[in-house]
Design goal:
homodimer, about 425 residues, Rossmann fold, 9-stranded mixed beta sheet, about 40% helix
Chain lengths: ~425, ~425
């Protein structure tokens, strides 16, 4: 007996139908926000990921040498391929808004919300350095969750890397990159270890403690501004603060209330350059639902071309956990599926004809083919998730009307073929 | 500069939008025929493919050892994973109808219609040995092509492995499997080599020549029956012939006229057990568009459970070639995409608000964020594939009506926000 690999998932129809619905809503909302679909290979040169993320990511990839002795890898993330596509086509008019829902692979120990293969929606705007692009990116992520029934169940934690850098500099940091990595691990480490690390990069202990107090919580943007200015003397952050405030204002004005300023959200990856954000369930039970931010330097790393960029990724696994917890893991399309049963030889022949005719009008149906026992056929209809049966016997053939039964309610009607659907 | 791997494809929006539309039609038609979606990992144990296809497939796979020293592979075909899922869940009520559109990978020299990574729609019916299931499978493949505008541009070549085996046996074959493989290569080899091979497995030269004459062409099912019975004395094929004739009748009766009996269609893979079929463009320019058949023994190979099966696979690459050739490679959805341009500071603020409001009604739009130059903004709108602009200046703000321009026709209207969409 062959089994699937550990950390990988099979999806049977009862789950896959829900997933298809989710992906379909993601695509629809992406289009509504002006994003267009792209796709790229699942295999790429490993070097591309080394350029972006350094060697650390390599231990977590499915990488190998192909027959041409090239080091290749199953893509562990979507951004590098997207940027590669962007810089390959220098002729493309910008700004571009692109999305995709690829499979991604990471060779790490499977755990809740974290599998070795997952699907992740990615959306990015290139060539647009505006705060409106930032707001649209977060707005799209929120609109997707809202369309899945999650409105009110999540919050978006937003931060500005530039502001954090100003703060760190003003309190004496000599290694801002390292301190951002420390803050990124804030909720995973003991307070004294955090302080020790910050101190080791040149920050006074008092100020490190003050920073920890700030970083611990979420704030409204107004609260955050007040604390930053009063406690950290961060130098000239007027432009940065003005920009992030305006981003908050736009999102709030347009109905996205669940946005907080969260200083511990810095995103581990060193390549973010501006706004960063992560979506979490309100109760804090799960990993992040989505995460992203502005990364204006990546295309230069790949090609020498400087193209501003902002985007996010939203994986399928945490989303499923949260939707299950909220009772939202169900098919909402309520489509009718007809099982057509012939009651005698003629009826069976007719059932095949009726099936093909109904399908011409895109009615979902199958003609029963499993023998003459009616009670077996009816059992099949229920077991196989059909919503209705259509019975065809001599009477039905004579009248040109078929008996249509709603399997949930038991309601039964006599209908002409053209009325069924 | 990082490049993509040879034999792999990037898809930019202009193509990806068409692909999404195709995949969406495939999913829709599959549902209409009662198929439900599944999905499985892209990585599986290599052993699974060895069991099904023997060692020959192994040289064409992207396979490698993972860190746990397991021989794993990127899946080169969909059927083994599908059957693995089926036999893993013994509790599943049957018959089941499943589809999926996975990516598949083959390490072979790229050529037209054949890439190292492709997407392939797969649809299978398990636990249903009826001819109606055979007809539904072919019917689905045809309905998909018809929905893509290809009606009349393709034909389906059908054969029955059992009948071919009867014929081979009756003309003296001592190695039917090998002779089927020879017939499978009929159009790729010289006639004398075919005859030589057939003779070497025990068939008289005269009969081998007769067989070649038969195998060379396509027939109506009636013509085929007549020739088979008169020329090959195939023994008792009444049931097999009755079944395939009935399958032809159903398909024809339901509007699928383009079905021919083609004796050279035997499908290379040894595992087919009954009807086999392949879709080709009428002019014979391309490789097969889809292919499949009945394979009643595979689940027993995997699990000891005998579960009848019939299905097909339809790849994306030949389909694209054919659709391009027929002028069908275009987006048919005609969706409106609005580019909202603020003519002054207030207008720009309003444009963001309008964008979010329109999106609440699923109207596709983006607010221009690239500076104040109106002619640049208008150029952007056209270059970026928007269909309409919405202009917002002082007048528009005062009247609560916006100027909406159709970029194709140049028509311009003054509209309230609620009317736009």
């Amino acid at each position: 007996m062959i089994e699937k690999l550990k950390g990988f998932r099979d999806f049977y129809p009862e789950d896959m139908e829900i997933r298809e619905e989710i992906f379909s809503k993601m695509r629809k909302k992406a289009k509504v926000f002006g994003f267009r679909p792209i796709d790229y290979p699942s295999l790429e040169l490993l070097e591309m990921f080394r350029i972006k993320s350094g060697d650390e990511i390599l231990s977590q990839t499915y990488s190998f040498k192909d027959r041409g002795d090239r080091e290749i890898t199953l893509i562990p993330e979507a951004t590098p391929s997207t940027v590669r596509m962007l810089v390959t086509r220098k002729d493309l008019p910008r700004p571009v808004r692109w999305y995709n829902i690829p499979k991604l692979w990471r060779y790490e120990e499977p755990q809740s919300g974290r599998t070795r293969e997952h699907m992740q929606m990615n959306a990015d705007i290139f060539g647009d350095d505006s705060l409106e692009a930032d707001a649209d990116t977060i707005g799209l992520a929120c609109s997707i969750l809202d369309s899945l029934g999650l409105r009110g169940s999540y919050e978006v934690r937003v931060n500005e890397r530039g502001i954090m850098e100003h703060i760190l500099k003003s309190i004496g940091s000599k290694d801002i990159k390292n301190d951002l990595a420390t803050i990124d691990r804030f909720h995973k480490m003991k307070r004294e270890d955090i302080v020790e690390r910050l101190v080791s990069s040149g920050i006074e202990e008092q100020k490190a403690i003050l920073l920890c107090e700030f970083v611990e919580k979420s704030y409204t943007i107004e609260e955050a501004e007040q604390i930053i200015v009063q406690k950290f003397n961060p130098g000239n952050i007027t432009d940065l603060m003005g920009r992030i405030k305006e981003t908050f204002r736009i999102l709030k004005e347009n109905g996205f209330e669940n946005i907080v300023y969260n200083p511990s959200t810095v995103r581990g990856l060193a390549y973010y350059t501006g706004i960063v954000f992560e979506g979490f369930d309100r109760e804090g039970k799960f990993r992040s639902i989505f995460g992203g931010g502005r990364y204006n330097n990546l295309s230069a790393l790949f090609s020498g071309m400087e193209i501003p960029a902002v985007g996010f990724g939203m994986g399928d696994a945490v989303l499923e956990n949260l939707m299950r917890e909220k009772g939202l893991w169900k098919n909402t399309e309520n489509e009718r599926r007809y099982y057509i049963i012939g009651l005698d030889e003629k009826g069976r022949e007719e059932s095949v004809r009726v099936a093909f005719r109904l399908r011409q009008r895109d009615v979902q149906c199958v003609a029963h083919s499993g023998g003459k026992n009616l009670s077996n056929a009816l059992k099949n209809a229920t077991k196989l998730n059909f919503t209705h049966t259509i019975l065809i016997g001599k009477n039905e053939m004579d009248n040109g009307k078929y008996t249509v039964r709603d399997l949930a309610s038991g309601d039964q009607k006599s209908m002409e073929m053209d009325q069924i659907g």
